[in-house]
Amino acid sequence: TMGVDVGDYDGDGRADIFVTSFSDDTPTLYRNLGGWQFEDLTFQARLGRFRQYVGWAALFVDLDLDGWKDLFIVNGHIYPQVDRYPMGLEYRQSRQLYRNLGNGAFDDLTAAAGPAIRRKAAGRGAAAEDFDGDGQLELVVANSNDTPSYLRNQRPRAGNWLIVEPHGIASNRSAIGARVEVRAGGRVQKGEVRSSRGYYSSSGLRVHFGLGGTQKLDEVRIFWPSGRESTLRGVSVNRVLAVREPEQ
């Protein structure tokens, strides 16, 4: 086990787990069945094909705004000397990008996603945030003994989005631990304000949702660490929604 991320990849409202691995092993996708039960669906999800990577940070992120969390993985071996031996391993390794098909499986887009994804490096950490304000997430990768990489999302925007920015009052100011639910079009998406993700990494504290073709949200609910709740209805899309924790 190397890095880990948590996210609801199958849209059933439960948080699933993805764990990266060392070479000669596969990463693992654990589907949350509820009741503290998990099922290994790595191969059914088409994520178990490659065994040559040493995986570090992994992120569940909706990069195409279709409402389904895609998967980004950072790779790189520990030992530079592996390049000297015919082991089929490399110190610098490409990143991996998988598109969530919305049916429990992922499509490997690594080869088609451009040179920034295919670039080989000794990757370690990764973070996601909408740096340019267009609603699409960009990626930053920390590389061992090298400059970091900034991966700008250049895909034409095909869906709507919402970024929720909670501000704690009774809870901690950054609202770490706050859970956000977005209801729209018969679906419920969930997210959480977290201080760390992946491997020695921290993404932005805002919660990002891809919404596909949804034009209007039925409801946005925030469950604050203090136990208080906020409910907003009729929220418009394609915006940053800043929410202050209620006083009472």
Describe it.
The protein has one helix spanning 115-118; strands at residues 4-7, 16-19, 28-34, 37-40, 55-61, 70-75, 93-94, 96-100, 106-108, 120-121, 123-129, 138-143, 149-151, 160-167, 179-184, 187-192, 207-212, 219-223, 229-233, 239-244. It is mainly beta and 248 residues long. It has two domains: 3-151; 160-244, Sandwich (Immunoglobulin-like), CATH 2.60.40. The strands form six sheets. The chain has a four-stranded antiparallel β-sheet with strand order 1-2-3-4, with no helix packed on it. The longest helix has 4 residues, at 115-118. It starts with a strand and ends with a strand.
Element layout with pairings:
Blueprint: E1 4-7, E2 16-19, E3 28-34, E4 37-40, E5 55-61, E6 70-75, E7 93-94, E8 96-100, E9 106-108, H1 115-118, E10 120-121, E11 123-129, E12 138-143, E13 149-151, E14 160-167, E15 179-184, E16 187-192, E17 207-212, E18 219-223, E19 229-233, E20 239-244
Parallel strand pairs: 14-20
Antiparallel strand pairs: 1-2, 2-3, 3-4, 5-6, 6-8, 7-10, 8-9, 11-12, 12-13, 14-17, 15-16, 15-18, 18-19
Task: Describe the structure concisely for a colleague.
By secondary structure, the protein is an all-beta fold. The chain has one helix and 20 strands.
Keywords:
Immunoglobulin-like; 2 domains; four-stranded antiparallel sheet; 248 residues; 1 helix; 2% helix; mainly beta
